[in-house]
Amino acid sequence: MNKTRLEAFSDGVLAIIITIMVLEIKVPHGHEFADLKPLIPKFLSYIISFIYVGIYWNNHHYLLHGLSKVNGKILWANMHLLFWLSLIPVATGWMGEHNFEQASMTLYGVVLFLSAIAYFILQRLIIINEGENSVLAKAIGSDFKGITSTILYVVGIVSSFYTEWISGVAYLAVALLWLIPDKRIEKVFNSKD
Amino acid sequence: MNKTRLEAFSDGVLAIIITIMVLEIKVPHGHEFADLKPLIPKFLSYIISFIYVGIYWNNHHYLLHGLSKVNGKILWANMHLLFWLSLIPVATGWMGEHNFEQASMTLYGVVLFLSAIAYFILQRLIIINEGENSVLAKAIGSDFKGITSTILYVVGIVSSFYTEWISGVAYLAVALLWLIPDKRIEKVFNSKD
Amino acid sequence: MNKTRLEAFSDGVLAIIITIMVLEIKVPHGHEFADLKPLIPKFLSYIISFIYVGIYWNNHHYLLHGLSKVNGKILWANMHLLFWLSLIPVATGWMGEHNFEQASMTLYGVVLFLSAIAYFILQRLIIINEGENSVLAKAIGSDFKGITSTILYVVGIVSSFYTEWISGVAYLAVALLWLIPDKRIEKVFNSKD
Amino acid sequence: MNKTRLEAFSDGVLAIIITIMVLEIKVPHGHEFADLKPLIPKFLSYIISFIYVGIYWNNHHYLLHGLSKVNGKILWANMHLLFWLSLIPVATGWMGEHNFEQASMTLYGVVLFLSAIAYFILQRLIIINEGENSVLAKAIGSDFKGITSTILYVVGIVSSFYTEWISGVAYLAVALLWLIPDKRIEKVFNSKD
């Protein structure tokens, strides 16, 4: 099994996911600036989801960079990750259409949480494949960011039932956590190259 | 004719097929959890179709891995396969919108059946091209999975006229049959590599 | 300028064009077989357009195979071709929705005609680039198929104003003309390889 | 970080952006030529946006050609550029649906302006990475075209509040400015190759 085609397929799916989200921002019917107002929550939810998919693309890239051989399990773990990520546009659209209301914040958190779990499974399988002493395994280490993100998603989901803005802060915090480039992995691989 | 570009084009089409299916899950108009309820059959039909397209992508990958030279016939047999696969989103959407009702179960089975036939034709042409003694021909052998799948599709189509859930079981059975990684092909190619 | 990225971009656009056409086949609202009936003209128009885009992808592949160096003119001639091809889904949708009625047959012919002109321009620029004695120039020769197709499009467009089915025959004839693999180019390149 | 995958992902996103714009040209309900009339402004706005995205793809290609090593900042600057470009279809659709009316002309200009800023940031980061004496830095030089474009966008945005057609002229002028192949960069790289 060739890694290149797995990367190409994942890139294709991620490129489509990130781009079809924009289709949720429907062209307004009116022709004045005021008609753009209902698009603001949609636009904001688009920004955050764009960043999320960008982060996943970025991390996915590093993860597969450290993979030497694809097997059936890894292939399906990758599909599983793409599956949950493919639901981000729907969750984003719902959140944007209903101005970050309670249920949509919960759903968004659930999709992000399940994506994170799927990513974790893929990461585990790749580490098992490469060995606990591999460069990748060392680079990931205790996976501080991954664990923190998962906790923040749970915080976001639970708090969405009480105070929506706390969910929002939790989801934004995860995005910021990852936006800062992952020095650990970059450093280890660079020293290897 | 270059195999790389055939793979790249097929990957692109399959990535788009698997992702536009999610567009059938329309953002619900209400803003409560209850408004997600009508999405459940759509979601379930999305899961199964996602798995199906994933299986085709996976098998297609192995099949083309064993191909040494593309000719016009193989190119069009590949297009023919992509054609039927491209109808999966419509069939999935219909099935999801009408809660797996009779006619939609029949249509879904027909699309899957014709995709299987198209795959079989492509496989035959590649084997003819590579020779009956090629690694690929040996790996496919009696094509137990392919034949079983085709029979199960027919069972699913016929039973959809009487009892829908038997169709559902048949389609699920095919998905499970293929989800288990194809040890035969993997083994043969690995021993070759 | 790298040819690979031009091919990759064109492949991406063609893969999307061929796949978004299926979005014109909207999921029927009813749940019986009879509800599929209005989809028949859409389905037929989808088949023919799928074949057309497939032919363009195929020919485009051969054409760029014979190209050694991309320049700005070729790049924009390629964009120009993609532009007209990108209108095929709209023309297909209109033709399918109105059961191959007069105006839609004219429009379809016009889009195909302009695509053919764009292809011809791209071909000329590549031949100029490669030289009249290049393998590609010899392979294309008098461009019998290209000229015949253009004439048939004109026949189709003109006859659409009087008898729609003659247009249909003309467009189908072009598709069949190209479906038969282009022995000329294949032969020349194979002898070169 | 591998440049190839960054290019592939960007190509995918740009190919999708350029193609989904055509989805704004909805299939007309009537079946006569007159029913195509309301599509004319949509078609014109599609042409100009198609050219714009084509220009960005072209320039992006040259820019990344001159890049030797991807880092986190460049990756996110690239995502930032793709973000603004992904809004072109919505802005195009609005402009087309409302016949180039005032607010839509302003919005279109703003999206183009922000895309230009994002491109400028990406260019700066790459030059910093490659060094002020790099081939790329010399090729870009005083960035006459980039600066002129930005000024023209501002002119277009401001004039959209008074006379829409001046905006139109400004946006068209930018497109023409870039359509002429960039001799500077091409020359420098060609002399290097």
Automatic annotation (TrEMBL), chains A, B, C, D:
Membrane topology, as annotated: Multi-pass membrane protein
Alphabetically ordered keywords of this record: Ion channel, Ion transport, Membrane, Potassium, Potassium channel, Potassium transport, Transmembrane, Transmembrane helix, Transport
InterPro entries xref list: TMEM175-like
Catalytically driven reaction(s): K(+)(in) = K(+)(out)
Pfam families hit by this protein: TMEM175 (PF06736)
Membrane spanning stretches: 6-27, 39-57, 77-95, 107-127, 147-180
Predominant location: membrane
Descriptive protein name: TMEM175 family protein
Family: Belongs to the TMEM175 family.
Subcellular location: Membrane
Iron-sulfur as UniProt keyword: no
